[in-house]
Amino acid sequence: MIEVVAEPGGGLVGAAATAALILVSGLCVLCSYRAVRGPTVPDRVVGLDAVATNVVAIAVLFALKTDRGLFVTVSLVLAIIGFLSTVAVAKFVTEGDVIERQE
Amino acid sequence: MVAVRALIVVALIAVGCFFLTVGTVGLLRFPNVYNRMHATSKPTTLGTAAVFLAGFAHFGPGGAGLPSLLGILFLFLTVPTGAHMISRAAQRTGIPFQDTVTWPGRPDVRTQGKSGVTPGFDVEDRGGDGEREKGSDRERGPRDRGRTSGRGGDGDGDSGA
User: Fold this and answer.
1) Contact B67 A73 (CB under 8 A)
2) So where are chain B's domains?
């Protein structure tokens, strides 16, 4: 708790961002339950997609907590990686290959 | 002014946390893949967009606020696309719908019960080429499982002709 007050983005926004970070991290754990115990493969993909979106929110909340705007860019990169991995896994499940050749 | 901005940021963070919690509860509690995808795509997008708006309200339009708005735009473009890809993959691997749900446009085709695959669906929608020669064992894992369960009824739809 002492570190929370001593952070640069302390005060009301820092405390709210810290509480939201703890909550969203717990939500990531709950989403990973669906990714581990999903009955089918698309269930796992949906769970991993939800984890990726939560991690994007975590990056923005970390930018709010530490008052560094660079981490918003980090969240953009994480969003791109999550989208690409979701599309790649969905195509791999369906087609058996990520990029299919037209022969 | 600073207090008003801090209050706006805290309220947007609270809204974002609420929607992310709703999305996670829906992901855990809904009974089907399609329902879970509905639960994760919409509320999670709204929650993350609210957190991005909190970032925009905190950093202002000069510095890191514009990447926040860009992130909102990017999420609204990519999350429905990803959900569409996953749902198409789920339908092609033969995961049945809910009990009375049919494919739109074909009201006679209906999935039956738990182990039923939709008859002739995955062959017909793949554009004509049924079997691929470069496929590994992993390619025809889930489809084969669904197909062997429905083989007794329709044996003619497999070759893709």
Assistant:
1) yes
2) 2-92, 100-151
